[in-house]
Amino acid sequence: MSKKVAIGVDIGGTLTKVGIVDREGNLFGHTDFSTKIHQEFGGYLDKLQEVIEALIAGLDFDHEITGIGVGAPNANFYRGTIEYAANLNWKGVIPFTEEMKKRYDLPIHITNDANAAAIGEMIYGNAANMKDFMVITLGTGLGSGIVCNGEMVYGYDSQAGELGHVKVFESGRVTGLGVKGGLEAYVSSTGLKRTVFALQAEMLEDSVLRNYSYHDLHGEIITQAAEDGDPIALAAFELTGKILGEQLANFTTFSHPEAYFLLGGLAKAGKWIFEPTQKHLEANLLPFYKGKVKLLPSGMMGKNAAVLGAAALVWNHE
User: Fold this and answer.
1) How far is CA 75 from CA 60, 79, 92, 112, 113, in A?
2) 24: exposed, middle or buried (C-beta count within 10 Å: 0-12, 13-18, 19+)?
3) What contacts 2, CB < 8 A, 6 or more positions away?
4) Which residues are within 8 A (CB) of 191 and not within 5 positions of it... i.e. 6 or more apart?
5) What CATH number has the domain bearing residue 214?
6) Tens of pLDDT along 162-217?
7) Is the C or the N end of the chain the one with fewer CB within 10 Å?
8) What is the mean pLDDT of residues 240-263?
9) Cα atoms in the Cβ-side hemisphere of radius 13 Å centred on 190
């Protein structure tokens, strides 16, 4: 009997990741290639097809490809398009599924990466028995996938849940979409770095972080500094967790999730981000929500979450 597998594709501004996944989340071969070098969308699809075919050829068991799931920035689930993605070379509205269907007679589903992560959490992760939860992805920016009553929230035109661009300060840092004082400018891997440099200007304490340029500083260094008791690292995590916790308390009012799952580079900081976020989430919840909202690490941490999440789109629509 042939084994059912799905193809998961995660399109990032720098890299595209591709893998073959079964219903249980086992990965049977995966690879990546540069998104950035493909100026034309047609040339990119040629490369994507070549990579998919090579992965399929590498399978050493009887198989049935059930579909292709794609996570991409600014993806419109309803229309199967990528629309005005700031960090991709192809501008305007890209008819992704229409063009892919010329190459593959298979179900093809596309959504943004945070929505794919939420569906992945439901299929393979820690939300298997939950009907109301949110996945917050903390990478270069902040993404959010919202599930209510067991269904993904897409909204009127498939762009619901852009919580990274919620305005949290009247003025301040700018998000990737130009929102002044927007959440992702403070709460993301990039936001944490920006906070470290802001605190270096405000605080006089010695800190190992003063030895790094902006481009050389990354999350693992800040986390290690926190482990070593560095005052600026500790203050940066406290401030980041405070802002995130306050906003998760706000988000609770519109859908009352059972849990928030944190995923991505900043979530890998473990207790340094989870503890202040939990403290400020609980402190800011309305009385009837207190003690009823969990903050949990994603069950996709340590796995190829981007590819698994994309492939989960296929199983979710089987």
Assistant:
1) 33, 9, 12, 5, 8
2) exposed
3) 62, 63, 64
4) 142, 173, 184, 185, 240
5) 3.30.420.40
6) 999 999 999 899 998 889 999 999 999 999 999 999 999 999 999 999 999 999 99
7) N
8) 97
9) 14
Are 135 and 283 contained in the same domain?
Answer: yes
Within this chain, do residues 134 and 118 fall inside the same structural domain, yes or no? no
Residue 107 · residue 304 · CB < 8 Å:
no
Q: Are residues 66 and 168 in the same domain?
A: no
For residue 281, what is the enclosing H or E element? helix 271-284
CA 33 to chain centre: 19
| 133 and 273 together in one domain | yes
Is residue 136 domain-shared with residue 281, that is, in the same domain? yes
Give the domain range for residue 59.
Answer: 3-122+304-316
If asked whether residues 213 and 277 sit together in one domain, one would say: yes
Residue 292: phi and psi, rounded to 5, are: -115, 0
Tally of structural domains, the chain: 2
Same domain, 248 and 190: yes
Confidence of residue 317 (pLDDT cuts 50, 70, 90): confident
- Long-range contact set of residues 35-44: C-beta below 8 Å, sequence gap at least 24: 35/11, 35/88, 35/89, 36/89, 38/89, 39/89, 40/90, 41/90, 41/94, 41/99, 42/99, 44/16, 44/90
Whole-angstrom Cα distance, residue 295 to residue 260?
Answer: 5
Identify whether residues 289 and 189 lie together within a single domain: yes
pTM reported for the whole predicted model: 0.91
Q: Tell me the mean pLDDT in the region 153-159.
A: 93
pLDDT greater than 90 at residue 301 = no
Structure tokens at 270: 């473990």
Whole-angstrom distance, CA of residue 74 vs CA of residue 194: 25
- What amino acid is encoded at 50 in this protein? E
Question: What residues contact 195, with CB distance under 8 A and at least 6 apart?
Answer: 186, 236, 239, 240
